Amino acid sequence: MKTLIALLSLFLLPFTQTQAAQSVYQSPADFVTQALGNQSKGQAKAKVFWFSAEQRQVIEEILAHDFRPLRTRYWQQGDDTVWILDEIGKEAPITVGIHVRHGQIYRTKVLIYRESRGDEVRHDFFTDQFKSATLTKDKQLDKHIDGITGATLSVRALTKLARIALYLDRQLSLQHGLQQHSEPR
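Given the sequence above, the corresponding structure tokens read:
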């Protein structure tokens, strides 16, 4: 009997880990509403950013892997942009909301975490490191992000997404001829 229970436990263990691995910390819609203010609930409509071949190439360089999407959605109100982006941690996508204001990260939040390990990246002690980060000329963050033992791939994923959000925000400002963003260092 004990052997049967042990075998069943070993068989069912992968299924329970997969189910438990997805954690929703905030819905993307709630993040957008919170980022752009409660008054924007009816006003902030998603816009579409279509990637040029050059922009896709830059994103592939940041990600260090192929990038196939042709477009992404974003929200904009004044100088604020909000991006809901996904990147694979180790095996599953991590959905992150990134609020950019005046070319700097204002807030970063893990919205949905699907990995079985490394979810420490969802805590404020980690995501607060991204506040006020900007993008350098070589498309790196201008500040160091401390890693978390056991969450290396999740840390890398969030760092890449922060770089992409800042890059896309800069591309929007260039498309619209806006000068409010400071020049990259």
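The CA atoms of residues 26 and 89 lie 18 Å apart. Try to locate this feature in the token string yourself.
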